[in-house]
Amino acid sequence: MAERSQKEVWRLTPWLMIALLLGNFILMAWDARESTSKQRMIRVWAQTAADFVQSPVTSVSSSVNNYLQSFVTMRTAQSENDQLKQRIQELEVSVQNKESLSVENERLKSLLELKERSPYKILPAQIIGRDPSAWFDTSIINRGSLDGVKLNMPIVTNGGLVGRVTAISPLTAQIYLVTREKVSEGGVIGEVGGSNALGVVSGTGKKDLLEMGYVPGSVEVAVGESVFTTGQEGIYPPGLKLGEVVEVRSGSATVPHQIFIRPSANLSALEEVAVLLYEPPPRPDYDKTVPNADKDTKGGKKK
Fold first, then answer.
1. Which H or E element spans position 64?
2. 198 vs 174, 194, 201, CA distance in Å?
3. What is the CA 151 to chain-centroid distance, rounded?
4. Residue 293 reports pLDDT greater than 60
C-alpha cells in the first residue's frame, strides 16, 4: 500500500507543480500592473480577449442592423414614391379638368357672341350622342319639340353652319351634319363670296371636306375664298358661313369647276351647338301666281 501510494504521489507530482506554477502565475498577474495606466494586467488581458470575441460579433451585428435600416428606408421611400405618384395623377386630373372647363367656357362664350349678333332667335344645345354607323355625319342634341325645335331647323356654332334637324322627339333631336348633305337630296345652295358664283354644296364622305359643284368654269374662283349659304334651297337662311375654298379643279366654258371646301365649324369636336329657330318663308304656289296658267294643261296644251 505504501509503495502504491508513493507511485501515485510521483504520478501526481507534475500536476501539482503545474497547479502551483499556475497559481503563482495568477497571483503574479493579479498583482502585476500596467506601467502607464496602473491597471492590473489580468484586467488588460481580459479586455483584450473580450475585444477579440466582441469585434466580429459587433461587425455582424452592425451589418445586420444596417441591412434592416436600409430595408426600412427602402420601404419608406417606396411608400413615399407611391404617394407622390398618386399626387401627380391627382394634379394631372385637376389640370385636365381645368383645361376642359376653360375650353368649355370659351365655347359657351362663342355661342353667347353668336346669340348677340345673330338676327335669329338661338337655342343653345349640347351634343349628347352620335350614330355609330355614321359617326361624323349624325348627332343627337338635348333639345326637342318641347323647346320649339322643328324639322330642318339649322344647327350652327360660332364658326359657321353645322347641319340641320332631321328628326325630333319631345326632349331630343337628331341632326345631319352638313357633310352628309347629298346632291341627290338637293344639297346646299352656296355662294362664293369673292365672285358671287352659285353652286351646290354637298358632302364628300370625309369629315373635313365639302364639295361644291355646278359652278361655271368661266367664273374665276380662288383658294381661300369663303362660301356662304344663299337660302335658295328653302332650308337655311342666307349668310351662314359654310367654309373656305381649299382646292379648285378648274373647269372650262362647258365643264364646271370642282371646288373643295373645308367646313368653318369644327365638326369632329362638337360639344355645344345652337339651334336657329328659323323657318323659311313659304314658297309661292307657282300654278296660282303665274298669269294665264291653267291647271288642266300639260306641256302647254289642254287635256
1. helix 41-117
2. 29, 11, 9
3. 34
4. no
Q: How many CB atoms lie within 10 A of CB 141?
A: 27
**179, 183, 189, 299, 300 from 206: Cα distances, Å:** 7, 15, 19, 42, 45
pLDDT at residue 142, rounded to an integer: 93
Assigned C-alpha cell, 144: 326637342
**Backbone dihedral region for residue 148 (phi beyond 0: left; psi -120 to 50: alpha; all else: beta):** left
Q: What three-state secondary structure class fits 32?
A: coil
- Give SS3 for 122: strand
Cell of 242: 359654310
Q: What is the largest CA-CA distance in the chain?
A: 178
- Is 212 in contact with 259 (CB distance < 8 Å)? yes
Could you tell me which residue, 206 or 60, shows the higher pLDDT? 206
Read off the DSSP letter of residue 281. Answer: P
Chosen CATH of 122-276 out of 2.10.10.70, 2.40.10.340, 3.40.50.1170, 2.10.25.10: 2.40.10.340
At which residue does the C-alpha cell 505504501 appear?
Answer: 2
Domain spans of the chain, in order of start: 122-276
Q: What pLDDT is attached to residue 183? A: 60
Residue 16 corresponds to which amino acid?
L
Over range 275-289, report the average pLDDT.
Answer: 77
Could you give phi then psi for residue 274, rounded to 5 degrees? -135, 140
DSSP 174-211: EEEEGGG--GGGT-EEEEETTT--EEEEEE-SSTT-EE
Selection from 48-52, 162-166, 249-253, 265-269 with the highest mean pLDDT: 162-166
pTM for the full predicted model: 0.60
